[in-house]
Amino acid sequence: MMKILKISSAIFSVVFLSQILMAQQNFAKVGTSGAHFIMISPDAKYAAMASSGAGMINNTVSSVFYNPASLVHISSKGAVFSKVNWFADIDFTALAIGMQTKYGALGVNVKSLNSGDILETTVDESFGTGNFYSWNDILISFSGAKAFTDQFSFGMNFGYLQQSVSLYGLTASAMLVDLGALYKTGFRSLSLGMAVRNFGPELDFRKEGADAVFEDYNNGEPLLEKESYRPFHMPLSFQVGLTYIFLEENPTHRLLMSVDGVHPNDSDERLNVGLEYSFMNLLYLRAGVFSNHDSGRYMGGFGIDLSKYFNPKIQIDYAISDYSLIGTVSQLSVGFAF
């Protein structure tokens, strides 16, 4: 039975990744979903490897952002804090905390985005009204993962998302779910993971509990009837990944390769490919690439594991990502294990 499961998993992975490579690029569907802050890669380790983490066995709590099933591999209580210098001075931060219990691995994580002050402009006052507003997003999720065998684990994030726009009193909120599965194939270090992220209902802006409306224009003239904000989809994605460690028995050098096939609901299918070289489990060098992203191209970074020298154990990771004409994104993550 286990042989059949291993063969089936391998065949499924090959077929899925082949379909990603051969997918027809007829319509990219870019801009057809909202709440994209939840798709920003929070952890610098994963970001440097092109967010190719669905099949990665990770012993830190940051795994909940990519595949919650990997949370079963944390060895103790842990926490990670990340800060991303997003475009246009937008501030994005993330925090995750997790621990092992007799019921399985449990955790909580938060993603938060703040745009900073933005000058309000209107049709009549295109240079600014003198008023400022800010865009604020937050996602709070509770995580759980359990190992059903020594090879297979399953995990879930259950979260509450809210978006708000100050000055106008607009809010949109919804519940969402992430599901993940992780399987050690039994062939050396090869592992297979799958994750469905951001499964939830449509979002719609409301004001003071009622449907929110705005003043629309036609050729510069205001329409008599105000328009309602239209509901928009979550950025749903399905991700399947394979991870393999070369030189796994070498005490000094190790090379990890991770390949994920990504099927989002608002853009073309793509491959995320990441590499991580480690020296004596102390220094890590990372690189990644997107195969078919509309703006993202190359990523890289490094990490330092200071677990042998500090208590609590500390790991620091840094990443920088190239988004072509849009610019670059840098981020820093600091992890603790107790």
Can you tell me about this structure?
The chain has helices at 2-22, 44-48, and strands spanning 78-85, 91-101, 104-114, 118-119, 132-133, 135-147, 152-165, 170-184, 191-199, 206-207, 210-211, 213-214, 217-218, 221-222, 227-228, 237-246, 253-264, 270-279, 283-290, 298-305, 313-322, 328-337. With 338 residues, it is mostly beta strands. It has two helices and 22 strands. It is 8% helix and 49% strand. The relative contact order is 0.19. The model is unreliable at 1-25 (pLDDT under 50). The strands form five sheets. Strands 1-2-3-6-7-8-9-16-17-18-19-20-21-22 form a 14-stranded antiparallel β-barrel. It has a two-stranded antiparallel ribbon with strand order 4-5. A two-stranded antiparallel ribbon has the order 10-11. It has a single domain, classed as Outer membrane protein transport protein (OMPP1/FadL/TodX) (Porin, Beta Barrel), CATH 2.40.160.60.
